[in-house]
Specification:
four-stranded antiparallel sheet
Length: 317
Amino acid sequence: MRQIDSTSKPRPAAITCRGLCVKYGDFVAVDDLSLEIRLGECFGLLGPNGAGKTTTVEAFEGLLRPAGGGIEILGTTWRTGGDRKLRQRIGVALQETRFSEVLTVEETVRLFRSFYDRGREIGEVIALLGLEEKRCARVGKLSGGQRQRLSLACALVSEPEILFLDEPTTGLDPQARLRIWEVVERFTAEGGTVLLTTHYMEEAARLCHRVAIVDRGKLVALGSPDDLVRELGADDVIELVPEGEADLELFTGIPGVRRAQRRGPVIALAVDSVTAVLPAALAAAEACGVKVSSIATHQASLEDVFVHMTGRGLRDG
């Protein structure tokens, strides 16, 4: 496991887990996971479908009992701190929340506010999520994006110290996604802590101070988005689709190619410079009688880090 941390003076921990293990029968969903999430940071949990992200978050939220290891939330645990006291200090927005279809937006937020000893004004949190025009609308009439914003409003109405967001912008249009990003950024700027799972790399790169990449329940990388990409050792990625078989060794000896990896029909080259390497790569392919049917290039990203370390894409099952 590669760990990178460029922060010279780390803040105290908001969430700590040591040797976390969660099982469903004989299936190990989370395997000996250790993490420390700091107060005031947005921490991203990334990985492909089935990697154990949601299970980890649910264990942190006290919804699942671990088979092994320990979890500490804000200096206490679910077993010793008392569930109600701890739940007063956290906010949760699940992948999908089932609200009463007949309640209005205001009634729904007011209901959630009643669960807590303290919190925000109802109108304030509705305005924060841009739901003023839908204040009197019934939940059953809301769009998917509006429901997502309502879910976040209900998570924020208690003024939580920690906010758990499990893929909060999946399926949203760009405008709705941007609104949620701004709310998350404001929350952390005011000292709140966020644990975020997402499949969107631009979301993680913008919001997260640090990310953990997990695969098959194990931690495989930890660090800031910039540091993880930098550690990849390449500025750009060239993706070539050859016609027929092509040996990876055909490209590994080209100056400027850091590594070559096969991703299904695609050969991905992590390179120092597209302009320097691409002509040489095409020439090497032509010299060996290999035709290239398509070419794509992009700047090295977190997804490239993940594929390099696990051989799978972030959206792969």
